[in-house]
Amino acid sequence: MTVRIAIGDACFASESDETVLDCLSRNGVSVPHACKSGVCHSCLMQVTDGEVPDAAQKGLKPTYKKQNLFLACQCKPEKDITVRLPDGAGLDTRALIVGKDMLNHNVMRLELRGEGSFACEPGQYITLINGDGLARSYSIANDPTKDGRIELHIRLLNDGQMSTFLKDRAAIGAFLTIRGPAGNCFYVREEGDAYPIVLAGTGTGLAPLYGITKQALASGHKGEVQLFHGALKDVDLYLVTQLQALAQEHPNFRYVPCVLKGDAGQFYQPGNIEEIVMAAMPAEKTRTRMFLCGAPEMVNALKRKAFLSGLASKHIFVDAFLPSQAAAAHPAP
Amino acid sequence: MNQSPTEKENIVASLYERLGGASAVDAAVDIFYRKMLADDRVSGYFDGTDMDRQIAKQKAFLTMAFGGPNKYTGKDMREGHKHLVARGLNSTHVDVVIEHLGTTLKELGVSAADIAEVAAIAEGARNDVLGR
User: Fold this and answer.
1) A29 in Cβ contact with A50 (< 8 Å)
2) What pLDDT was estimated at residue A326?
3) Chain A residues with CB-CB distance to B under 8 A?
4) Do B51 and A300 make contact, defined as CB atoms within 8 angstroms?
């Protein structure tokens, strides 16, 4: 079905089954976007005339829906619509870059200070948008409500546009635009909180898990908390001493670094993180809460295994790190 | 006080009410979906699917099979399973679904008569699911 999408002074005919994002990109209209899966919310747009399908507003806050905001990557309009890029008021915040340091050979810690009040839960994610409109989502590794500082772990990729920008061009003292937070992978203190918590992640999937772990322990969580961090080689692990110290401090916290290509007799466990986690699953399956972050294959495989072993589906919280996707007209270089 | 026949009928709880309504669906969905995922006869059809989305779908299905409010139409059933029929979904797989539905309800302490009623509703969707 062909519908017309109007933006500013221009109007484009969408091809069948095409999203608003793809249609606009194909016609040279630049819309910030990253995951193209409806998760990162980078491609938020506003409909000023017409209606968007429910699917285009799935997962948005009620306040966003009320402002007629929608996700361009999930929107296949059924009728002609007029859209615009939101002006960012009430949506975006500016954040000052206050710190940059390397956590290992390819993970950089980026510290931001948001302007005004910035409320979030450690484990949620925000989207960074730079001056060129490039957008990427990163998880929050700390509790920013304490000192206003937002800690993100950036994996540096050779061909990563945003990570290269953050490493080489984003200077301390410069501003970035942040959108969010979003995501429901975070610790919620519940009555009778002696239930076990299992957290497992690979790579910078540690960022949200580190935030959730610290939040749970700081809240006085009484149950056993086990954190599994998977890496290919030992040099890919990070925050090892901090996590070991945290385990010293909290008898109910266990930190298990897992190295796929590792040796026996080291400070970590050698082998596949999925097997190591499943072998250490608490006996109280129905009460265990699980948090999974990082590579989608690992996250989805462990989610299924944990569910089959008896965990309740509502107790498994996941944040799969989706790779960024190019829009139709702008294939990745 | 005399009651009209319709009022009398209303006093008899519906199947959905007897089973426990939405909270029964919540209790059943994990047990049912776990049985399906663990069963080699049907688990292959769930490969590569999103668990949360599947659970939402299973809830809609269970609500229908429990005689509850639902928006399922024969067309939805046909459309939703078309790609699976193309991959070999047939009547034996529907039998597996009804089997797991029965054992799930049995584990939850549902009476044999109510289980039979649920099975009959699920049975009614067989032809639509298989696109016949």
Assistant:
1) no
2) 58
3) 300, 303-304, 307-308, 310, 312-313
4) yes
Half-sphere exposure of A173 (CA within 13 A, CB side): 1
CATH fit for domain B22-129, picks 1.10.490.10, 1.10.1060.10, 3.60.40.10, 1.10.150.530: 1.10.490.10
What residue spans define the domains of chain A?
Answer: 4-84, 92-182, 197-320
**Model ipTM value:** 0.84
For a pLDDT cut of 70, what percent of chain B falls above it?
92
Which pLDDT does position B75 carry in this prediction?
81
User: A92-182 sits in which CATH class?
Assistant: mainly beta
Domain covering A197-320 assigned CATH 3.40.47.10 in the classification:
no
Q: What is the pLDDT of residue A32?
A: 85
Give percent of chain A with pLDDT exceeding 90: 73
Tens-digit pLDDT profile for residues A272-321: 999 999 999 999 999 999 999 999 999 999 999 999 999 999 899 998 88
DSSP calls for B34-79: HHHHH-TTTGGGGTT--HHHHHHHHHHHHHHHTT------HHHHHH
